[in-house]
Amino acid sequence: MPFWNRKTETRLIVGLGNPGEKYTATRHNIGFTCIDTYAQLHNVAFARSRIKAKTAMARINNLDVVLAKPYSFMNLSGEPVGKLLRQHKVKTENLIVIHDDMDLPVGRIRIRQGGSSAGHKGINSIVEHISTQEFVRVRVGIGRPQGTGTEKENEVIDYVLGEFTTDEKPVIKDIMPIVCQVLDSLLVEGLTASMNRYNSTDLRKPNNAK
Questions:
Q1: Backbone dihedral region of 143: left (phi > 0), alpha (psi from -120 to 50 degrees) or beta?
Q2: What DSSP designation does 151 have?
Q3: What's the CATH number of domain 3-208, 3.90.1640.10, 3.40.50.10380, 3.40.50.1470, 3.40.50.2300?
């Protein structure tokens, strides 16, 4: 049975990023930015847990939802995510992960379930620790340094650990309400309806949201 039909089961929404002030505004931390915005929308605050993560408990649309930011650094995200799933007795199909994606233009949002990590080390770590790819991902585009897909590894690292440009920052600000809409839609309407609504168009401008 799809996760959105199990009304009594807890959901876990994870935003990926790196801990520490120097990483706060970087492209790689867009998952943290999104989950922070969603927590503010629902008037809940994060607190440190015994696991390497900050968590917030919320009641959203009559569902119990755990919001989480792993604090183990991006490449080691899987360990705290696995522990959170076990601690809160969340099934993997009830897991939603928000993360940056270089294969999408800046601000583009795409929802998917399962499939390849496309080299994203945070997703790789989660798959390794929970032994499945079958969880929902909200991919937020950050673009590529040259846009060619042929960048060297050090160029990619410098890019994802860099901050958004002056032109990109308003785009990121504009999509935050849309990310919140996407998460609410996933919780209430489910995966298929959310993909049909939010994957079918360029949502970088708020007035394009349905």
A1: left
A2: -
A3: 3.40.50.1470
**Per annotation, catalytic residue among 28, 88, 99, 120:** 28
Provide the whole-model pTM: 0.91
Q: Going by C-beta distance under 8 Å and a sequence separation of 6 or more, which residues neighbour residue 103?
A: 118, 141, 144, 149
Enumerate the domain spans of the chain. 3-208
129 annotated active-site: no
pLDDT tens by residue, 89-129? 999 999 999 999 999 999 899 999 998 888 899 999 999 99
Rounded to the nearest 10°, the torsion over CA 46, 124, 95, 108 is 80
Q: Rounded CA gap, 59 and 41, in Å? A: 12
